[in-house]
Amino acid sequence: MDKSPDELIYGRQSVLEALRASRPLRKILVSHGSRPSGAVRAILDHARQQDIAVQFVDQRRLDELVRGRHQGVVAMASAKTLASIEQILDAARATGRLPLVLVLDGIEDPANLGAILRTADAAGVHGVVIPKHRAVGLTGTVARTSAGAIEHVPVAQVTNLVRALEDLKEAGLWVVGADPKATQNLYEVDLTKALAVVIGGEGKGLGRLVLEHCDLPVRLPMQGKISSLNAAVATGIVLFEILRQREARP
Fold it and tell me: Do 70 and 172 sit in the same domain of this protein?
């Protein structure tokens, strides 16, 4: 867990006001001993309405995170303001280039996410979509690992990845999913269209429903004994093949 002080909001009223101001929060930690009444009840209600994860933890965990008086409530804020899918698509159209959106299905390692954001920036990705649950958010570690790329690549956080893919399809994007079981090789397909590229999480790959919503599953050619690559490495290979094809197109 990232413990950067500037990412932690603590104290019941401070957390409640952050929620009322719709500040992007990754998670709220509540002590097991906190009674669900008054400010705590209001915090839980706002968190549910904004679909922010709430985790009940031991008091000692909060004491380790915060030296000040936390009153049994600590919120973990995002390292940057989040975008929406609509904002990402609008920004892509403004560039005059074909949209290229990266969708990440369950990346849990903050170092991996930071490296992916750095690669996405270098490859000209217009925005990245990540899930709110069962995945790492925009932590301080992600920001540091991205080497500043987090400031230049818009990131949208969604509750439902499948619905996000449907929205991208309606906007005219083809969905390409990296899947080691796919019949088509990455280097055999036309990647010069408006694209949303989906990369699965470490060790798990793409979820079943997410894979079913991919228009074009592709695999990376592998000649060694290991059947898969690190998510950040796989992302780089796919994105720069897309860039290569686009650059070669008249």
Answer: no
- For 151-177, write each residue's pLDDT tens digit: 999 999 998 999 999 999 999 999 999
Same domain, 208 and 228: yes
The helix/strand/coil state of 207 is coil
43 contact partners, CB below 8 Å, separation of at least 6: 12, 15, 16, 19, 28, 30, 73
Task: Write out the two tokens for 28.
Answer: 């709220």
DSSP state of 99: P
Is the pLDDT at 34 greater than 90? The verdict is: no
End-to-end CA distance of the chain: 47
Domain containing 28 equals 5-77
The reported pLDDT for the residue numbered 146 is 92
Q: How many residues does the chain have?
A: 250
Report helix angle 110-122 to 231-248, nearest 10.
Answer: 10
Work out the widest C-alpha separation in the chain, in whole angstroms: 65
**The whole model's pTM is what?**
0.81
Instruction: Kindly give the pairing relationship between strand 73-77 and strand 25-31.
Output: antiparallel
| Beta-carbon contacts of residue 198 (< 8 Å; ≥ 6 apart) | 103, 104, 105, 165, 175, 176, 177, 178, 206, 210, 214
